[in-house]
Design goal:
The protein is mainly alpha-helical and 285 residues long. It has a 3-stranded antiparallel sheet with strand order 1-2-3. Strand 1 and strand 2 form a beta hairpin. The protein is globular, with a radius of gyration of 19 Å.
């Protein structure tokens, strides 16, 4: 049954799905990203008609484009990690036809890499969710935050890294970035823009959820995020400089920007309660 609740944050839940159900929440933070997602999709769809004028399988592209839109909205509206995971996987599989749209040899190879990274990341994340559910007894963001505050982050490093793995794969964090430079050049330009502007940021949303709820103010986690962020930032910039393909350059530039965001997340962990500047920079990037 669908249950709606009102208050400072609007909530909705749908029970009976894989016994855990789906839970969603709309607050000020999520409203910003929902507006950004809607704007990006509106702009790319507005330009798609002319772009796809001489393309084949346009109906297939538009269908999976809308499915991916709904799934992406679901990721950002999720109130627990299980809901985020379900919509995250739908988003990953629905965006696969984007990469394979041309059906050329290069496009199919890139799509296979994209799908392999998505499946591997999803399975590793699911393993982490099993650990968290067993240890904490909940996957809700509030419940996990309360558990981490009560028991400390030491027991959560393994499940935290497993969950982080899947989100980092979608975000294009080093060394899971291998799909980005391959998928962007072969995908249609509107899809490439969404892959760069929105889908990678859904991975960042998951990393933010893990970092802020499980490892808030934890120095070890902050160091890990900072190291991966700096490597991703520098490597993406170097690859962009060496690229001669515009869409590949966009992909590598996006990877570098993800590194900037991850560096901000690392600083949020290292600075603890004095992390306002790092949080502002992370969200702004």
């Amino acid at each position: 049954a669908l249950v709606l609740a009102s208050g400072p944050a609007r909530e909705a839940s749908l029970a009976g799905i894989c016994s855990l159900g789906l839970s969603m929440e709309l607050d000020g933070f999520r409203k910003v990203y929902i507006v950004v997602i809607a704007l990006m999709w509106f702009m790319t769809l507005g330009l798609s008609d002319e772009y796809f004028a001489h393309y084949h399988n346009r109906g297939r592209y538009y269908f999976f484009n809308l499915v991916t839109l709904g799934a992406t909205m679901g990721v950002f509206l999720a109130a627990d990690l299980f809901t985020a995971f379900v919509f995250f996987e739908i988003m990953s599989f629905a965006s696969y036809p984007w990469v394979a749209h041309d059906e050329s040899e290069g496009a199919m190879r890139a799509a296979q890499t994209y799908l392999a990274v998505a499946v591997l990341g999803g399975m590793v994340t699911l393993m982490g969710l099993f650990f968290l559910q067993h240890d904490a007894g909940t996957l809700s963001f509030e419940g996990l935050r309360a558990y981490a505050q009560e028991n400390g982050p030491e027991k959560l490093y393994l499940p935290g890294i497993l969950v982080f793995f899947g989100f980092a794969a979608k975000a294009g964090v080093f060394p899971l970035h291998i799909w980005l430079p391959k998928a962007h050049p072969v995908a249609p330009a509107p899809a490439s823009a969404l892959l760069s502007g929105i889908l990678t940021k859904s991975g960042i949303f998951g990393i933010l959820v893990v970092s802020c709820n499980l490892f808030y103010g934890d120095r070890t986690w902050g160091d890990l995020m900072l190291i991966l962020g700096v490597i991703t930032m520098v490597l993406g910039a170097v690859l962009a400089l060496l690229s001669i393909d515009l869409k590949r350059t966009l992909a590598c530039s996006s990877m570098s920007q993800i590194g900037f965001v991850l560096t901000g997340i690392g600083m949020m962990g290292l600075l603890g309660s004095a992390n306002a500047l790092a949080a502002r920079g992370t969200v702004a990037v």
